[in-house]
Structure formats: C-alpha cells, structure tokens
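Proteins fold reproducibly. Next comes a concrete instance:

***
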Amino acid sequence: MGNVEMKARKLRRLGYVQSAVLATVEIAGIIAITMIAPNIFQAFPRLMGKKRYQLAFQARTAVSRLVVRGFVRFVERKGKKFLEITDEGARALAIEQERTRLMSARKKRWDKRYRIVMFDISQRRKADRERVRAFIRECGFLRLQNSVWVFPYDCEELITLLKADMRIGKDVLYAVVETIENDGWIKKHFNLR
C-alpha cells in the first residue's frame, strides 16, 4: 500500500500510547484485549507517570484509531476478543522502527561513505513520487537534485522497506559511494569529519 509511510508518519505524531499498542501487538502476534494496558505499561515505562485509568482510556482510544487505520484488527477465538496486527500495520511499524534506527545512526561514527538514493517515478505516479520525496526529506536525506538524495549512514533496509511498501522497486536505485566531488557542503550539512 502506498499510504503506509504516510500512516506511519501520522502514527509518530499521535504519540507514545498508540505506538506502544502497535508494538505490543506486533511482539505478541495476537493479544487479548484485556492484556493491552498492562503490556503498554511495561513497553513504555516513560508513561508510568500517568494514572492507570488514564492510560487504560488512552490505550482503548489508541486501539480504536489503529483499527480505523487498518493497522490492527479484532479477531474472536473461543468466545474471547483478541487484537492482531495486520500486514499493513506490520509494514508501517517496520518502516517506523527502521526510520528511528536511522535517526540514532547519526550518533555513530561515519564510515566515510555516502548512500545515494535515486528515483525515476513516472509522471502518471506523481503522487507516489512526491510521497517518496517527502518521506526521505523527513528522514534527513539531503537533496542533490530533485530525484537524487544523499545520506551518510547505512539506510538500505529503510529504502528496501519503502520500495516494497510502495511497489516502486524498479524505479528506485540505492548506491553506496566512497566520494562525491566537492562534498564539503555535504559534510558541513551532516556535521561530518
């Protein structure tokens, strides 16, 4: 689905509780509705400052929102209601987790190689092209040209997930290069040495 990366962006903006619900359901595979709140508390200790009833309310609200977005669904087994993650929810969560990993990579030592992402998405898929452009900009890539972007840290997994999710594999190229001519401004942008 092409909208998963946009939904993942919305998921980030909605906060910790919704992310905690989705992550908890993904880890468990399937989880009883009554077990959601306790698992969220364990997954995100940062939330523990809130009162238990407030968190339970936020968890139920988050579940409802995730169902509406198609990230999770209710299933019934032996008369009990369970929640399970959908394929779309798993993809959105994978993209978000990889994006978060990528952001933390900035604290690591640079390996003196650049990652180049180039795409040539046809005019009839202009909306997809703009989504790709917005997504990689949001992830911190630097634009070299309209459809050529650079990032100094390994991001192959993120690009692979994006290509698979949007079904644009043949339209996007990922390259790792040792040097870029006149790269001083790139190093300055990313604060590299």
